[in-house]
User: What shape does this take?
Amino acid sequence: QSALTQPASVSGSPGQSITISCTGTSSDVGSYNFVSWFQQQPDKAPKLIIYEVTKRPSGVSNRFSGSKSGNTASLTISGLQAEDEADYYCCSYAGRSTSWVFGGGTKLTVL
Amino acid sequence: QVQLVHSGAEVKKPGASVKVSCKASGYTFTAYYMHWVRQAPGQGLEWMGWVNPDSGGTNYAQKFQGRVTMASDTSISTAYLEVSRLTSDDTAVYYCAREPSNGIFDHWGQGTLVTVSS
Assistant: This one.
């Protein structure tokens, strides 16, 4: 069982927006603004798309955005494109003893 | 450009140990922590720990303490992960990932597949 809870799957049509949630606790997501999101295409390494809750690395489309409320972080993808079909993982800092925890991953299907 | 290049796939028997390497290039190796993350077939990502190449310091996830060793060789800009007492549950792709700070795992290696089978 993963430390952070994500829906197993989400889907949307091209052009639509979707949101993936990442629920933790007051010991991780709720306590630190060190939440990252990763996109993983089949048989590829994960790619950083959001860090520190809301920030986008250089080169990542502004269709990707992040937010946080309480113990839940969210990733929103607007203007869905076929190339967005992938697995998405959240990750949060969880303090000195636990350090870093990942969500179980969400498979995005573009219909 | 930043590159992290893993050693090749490994097949090991239960009870054995495996050592995976991750060679860095394109940046100052000692300026960034190196993390190790694994992914079992069809499963999610699992954080294992980090090594600080500058100091040699390490921090392991509680689950792996006593069974993993992370190290680095600054002379060849390479990080290492050793896992001992392997079981079939350790069959996974093992990734190294660079961290400038605050969980910004901004570059990942291509991964090393470790298969544990009798």
